[in-house]
Amino acid sequence: MTPEVDDALEAVEQQYGAGSIDRVQQMLDPARQERHPLQKNAKWILPGLSKKPWHDPYEHPEIAPVVRAFEAGHADIKEELATAWSRSRPSFTDYEHYLSTQSDWQALYLFRAGAPAPEAAQVVPTAYRILDEYAIRTGTHCPLLESHFSTLLPGAVVKPHCDLWNFSINLHLAVDIPEGCGIKVAHDARTWAEGKCLLFDYSFEHEAWNKGSGTRTCLLVDLWHPETTLAERAALTALITEIRLLLGDL
Questions:
Q1: What does the pLDDT look like over 177-188, one tens digit per residue?
Q2: How far apart are CA 141 and CA 146, in angstroms?
Q3: 3-class DSSP state for residue 249?
Q4: pTM for the whole structure
Q5: Dmax over Cα atoms in the chain, in whole Å?
């Protein structure tokens, strides 16, 4: 790593104590990494986290309040999304995945580039409020990626891929789900139940599809893996932010 990264990690360890970020240091050493075969294309695997592709959305005390809040707000979220789709289409853009950009995969961002997207508060206020109140302010939300409405147009396919790491996991609120849609994580394919959440570790290979005749929209929220510590979260945030600065991505 670079001196800048070393300094950032040293500052976190000084704050939280010796040994507090040993797993992060181990993650940075490829020779010490152990990973599931279906995580092979992920960039980083933080050791010691459960190698579990799917999680019960209600099983983690830190995450369950986020799940329940989004599910309770589903009716309002769906109504606001429909209005946004019909009246504010410029708010949606081609989704820019780190591997590719797809025109049949549309996104409306609530959080991006390390900060909330304030324009979303006017377009989809209920989702924006719940994200802020239950995820961002509580520290449950992982600020290193984004949170957005993910709309797959009819016929869209998201090809099998691994996302960047395992120290955050992905929450899907099923907002508007036509027939013919599904998602597969590792070897387990599932469907969304409208108004309910799915939770999975996207460092495992996964794919999704919309074989229906209508648009499929889920609200995607990146949350810290519940088995990470506060020290690790601070170190990982400092690490990824410094790497992106060095690469000119911020």
A1: 999 999 999 999
A2: 10
A3: coil
A4: 0.94
A5: 56
